[in-house]
Structures are given as structure tokens and as C-alpha cells.
Amino acid sequence: MPVDTTDGVGFGVGDETQLILDSLDEFLEQEVEPLLDDLGDVDTNPRTGHHENGRLTDEVLEAREQIRRRSADAGFYAMNLPEAVGGEDVSPVTWYRAKKHLASHGPGLSRYVLAGPEGPKPLLLQAAGDQIERYLEPTVRGEKSTAFAQTEPSVGSDSPNMETVGRKDGDEWVLNGRKQWITNAPYADFVQLFARTTPQEEAGRYGGITCFLVERDEYDLGSYNNAVGAVGTQAEIVLDDVRIPQDRVLGEVDNAFYAAMAFLSLGRLELGAEAVGYSEYALEQAREYVTEREAFGQSIGNFQQVSASLARGKAKTYAADAAGLKLAWKMATDERTVMDASVFKWFATTVMWEVADAVVQVHGANGLAEENPYMDLLHQARMLRIVEGTDEIQLNTIAKELGLTE
Ligand SMILES: Cc1cc2nc3c(=O)[nH]c(=O)nc-3n(C[C@H](O)[C@H](O)[C@H](O)COP(=O)(O)OP(=O)(O)OC[C@H]3O[C@@H](n4cnc5c(N)ncnc54)[C@H](O)[C@@H]3O)c2cc1C
After folding, report:
1. Is 35 helix (H, G, I), strand (E, B) or coil?
2. Closest residue (by CA) to atom 17 of ligand 1?
3. 135 — phi, psi (to 5°)?
4. What is the pTM of this model?
5. Active-site residue, 388 included
């Protein structure tokens, strides 16, 4: 189908993107589904697949790694990164559509097909010298996994106030502190860890923070930070006089916070894409259910309160998708996207929360059943409204962009 770009706006799916979406479906069928056959209900039920303390079972970890490696082999995993480092250089629009497309198949291990928090992000493109071969390229190939470690026990949204410190000692850096809620920390080969290297009084609020590449055998793991619906994935990182060589600084000393801020929009695009995809999935499940389920002698979809609740969900999901496409398009054309990214992330995740709640409701008791994914989607939506900047942080950013606050 030709892409109509009348007045610079195009909503058609280009041929190349459509080919990627079709190939992703084939990949799911041929590579992912056979792996899941051996895993029982782990794919659909987050209450399974982990030990008592939360640690994921070896079978689940193996399946995730296999999906990652096979996806990288097939050219999907980090296809948004430049060809020079092993990606495919696809545009943010294609990346958005691919992320959304996978989520629209419902929650499950298919989320590991495209690089998420465990995978390479543009921040890692700052890798230089040996870091390229040792960290960046194997992560793009899905052979190694990583984590992004910023949050601490006392500091989340206010991350520049972090207490973890890095002190230079000869040719080494000495790291002390504790990170918390770090996705993939228990399983990563290395983490990208943020520490204060110059006091705020000297470097300013956002300056003085450096990103270090710290290997798994160099940090201790604290407790698992198990969330409802996300058990075994997040954990604490404990740094007690950890010494690492100078060449493990990623990017420039004291400049990591600014570097990370440059990629905020991408994280928000990806997360919002998932929210839109999950909303589409949940609405489709509900549409089928209310057509078949009968009460008072007719299908429940005939009751206006039921159909209107799904219609409202559809309208909001439609609007969220349009906002996601606009954000992706502005990113592709290198425009400023601070406001757009916050609008989309806040809106798409709020819509998913409302849609998931409506979908539970129209399923009645079946909506609450553990074997169905609807309460899990509600939990997922709750989580998406906290990670990558909470609702309040997104609204603060929008208010700031409106000139209302500083
Ligand atoms: C499943 C999961 C995975 C995660 N993965 C990672 C990861 O990989 N790496 C990582 O570094 N972190 C990760 N996090 C942490 C996440 O980024 C933080 O939880 C998030 O930034 C919020 O910080 P906080 O939890 O400390 O809440 P706080 O910052 O303490 O906020 C508490 C409440 O106060 C509100 N609030 C705070 N400041 C303001 C303000 N200025 N105006 C209005 N309201 C405000 C917040 O919106 C929130 O409602 C993860 C968290 C979860 C749940």
C-alpha cells in the first residue's frame, strides 16, 4: 500500500514496514511458539516460572535468551540501531509499529523479541575502543544482556539526587552505593550504572554524573524487588568499594545524565507502544467475549453499557495510537519531542489502565480468573504508569513545556 504523505502526514503502513510486521508474525509462529510449548503456562501466567525468592527458573531464562538470540539472527532484535553496529537503521515509526504489533498479540514472552530494558539502547552507542567489541556488539547480537541502573532506595523520580558515588583512585574508579528496582540486574552480563562523580554544588543539578560499565561478577546482588505481575525481574545492586578500570566509563565523565536525557523520548515511545498494543489486544478479546456471552436472553454486547464501555476504550486507544505515530514521526524528522513524548507516555498508559479495567468488568468473574490475562494486564498498566517517569512526572513536563512551571 503506498504511503500517503499529504501535507507531510502519513498514516499508511509502508511496504517495508508491512514486510517486517508479517515477518515478525512468522518468527513468532516458527521460533517463539515451539519454545513456549515446553514451558507450560509460564508465558501467560506471571505467577509461575520463578523460585520462591523470585529468581526466574533456568528454563525461563534459557527461553528468553533463545528468543533474543534468534531474533537478533533474524535481524529484528535491535533493528532500530545503526547498521554500523549491527542494527538495521529502521525509523522510529517502524520501531513503534513493531513494538505495538508484538504487544497486540497479548502479554507473554514475545516481548523479548525486540530489545527492551535488557537490550542495547542508544546510550550504549557511546561505547568507544574495546567497549564496542566487549559490550555493544554482543548486546546487539543478543549474546549479552545489560541493565540500566539509576534508581536507588531513597531516590527514584529525583534521580539527580542519587547517593551512589564514584571516586577516582589512580587508574581506577571506586564505586559505593546501592541501586534498587533494576530490571534484569540478576541476569545481566553487565550493567550501565549511574554514579555521582562531582558534587551537585560544583557540577549543577544534572551535571557531575557518570555512567560506568560494571560486570556481573563485580557487583553484589541484594534482594529481588518483586512487583505484582513482575516477579524475579528487578533486583538491588550493592556496590561496596567496587574497583573498576578507567576504561569502563561509558561516554564522558560527569555528562551521563545529559546523555541519558537525550534518549528519554525513545523509552517513552517504546513503553507507550506496548500500552497501545496491549489495549488493542484486550479490546479484541473483550469484543469476542461480549458477542458470545449471553445474559437475559441476548449477547451482553447488546447492552449499551457494555458496548459503550468498549467503544470508549476503542476511541481512546485510537487516539493514543495516533499520538504514538505522531511522536515517532517527529523523532524520525529530528524534531524536539519533549512534550510529545510525555503526552504520549501519560496518555497511552492511562488509556491502557482504563481499557484493562473495562475489559475485566465486561468479563465478569471470568475477568478476575487467574487463568485469564485481564487482571495481569491491569497490573501491567499500573506498572507502566510508574516506570520511565511516573504520571506526575509526565504531567510536570507538559506543564513546564506550557510555560506554567519552571
Ligand atoms: C517494574 C519496575 C521496573 C523498573 N526498572 C528500573 C530500571 O531498570 N532501572 C532503574 O533505574 N529504575 C527502574 N525502576 C524504578 C522506576 O524508574 C522508579 O520506580 C520511578 O522512577 C519512580 O521512582 P520511585 O518509585 O522512587 O517513586 P518516587 O520518586 O518516590 O515517587 C513517589 C510518588 O511521588 C510522586 N512524585 C515524585 N516527585 C514528584 C514531583 N516533582 N511532582 C509530583 N509528584 C511527584 C511520584 O509521581 C510518585 O507518585 C523500575 C520500577 C519498576 C516498578
Report:
1. helix
2. 387
3. -120, -50
4. 0.96
5. yes
